[in-house]
Design goal:
Helix 2 (27-46) runs antiparallel to helix 3 (50-57). This protein is elongated. The protein is an all-alpha fold and 79 residues long. The protein is built from 4 helices and no strands.
Amino acid sequence: MATNLNPEHREGPVATAIEHQTAKVPSDIFLWAALGSMAASLTLKILKQDKPALFVGQWAPSFLILGMYNKIVKLEGHD
């Protein structure tokens, strides 16, 4: 478990539960989800569905950020 930089700071029960569950998810899932959203966006763009293509394409950064969060929780742990 990582050393706590601020010993007075503790995560709340919701954050702790989310971190506990997300630590079980393989990091590859988030990468594949990001790649899948980009592929779906490209497909929609080819099919001339511009607005849905933009909507789905914007999911990729969120999946990648969630993957980074997942990796940090796995490496550093949680409270």
